[in-house]
Amino acid sequence: MVIVAKGEGRFQPRAVKLGMRGGDQVEILEGVAEGEDVVTSANFLIDAESNLKAALQSFTQPAAAESKP
Where are the domains of the chain? Predict the structure, then answer.
């Protein structure tokens, strides 16, 4: 799973298919397109599967949902 930066503070989780590994690099065969920005660091830590699911859902919520009182 990777997080793709969509711009304007929006992010999208993506399932990826991995290929060969060498040193500190991993080939990604499917899931992202050339030129897309993949998040490589963050200022938060997801420490449990339930927190991961909640975080991934929050990335995909429309901005209008966030502005509701």
Answer: 2-66
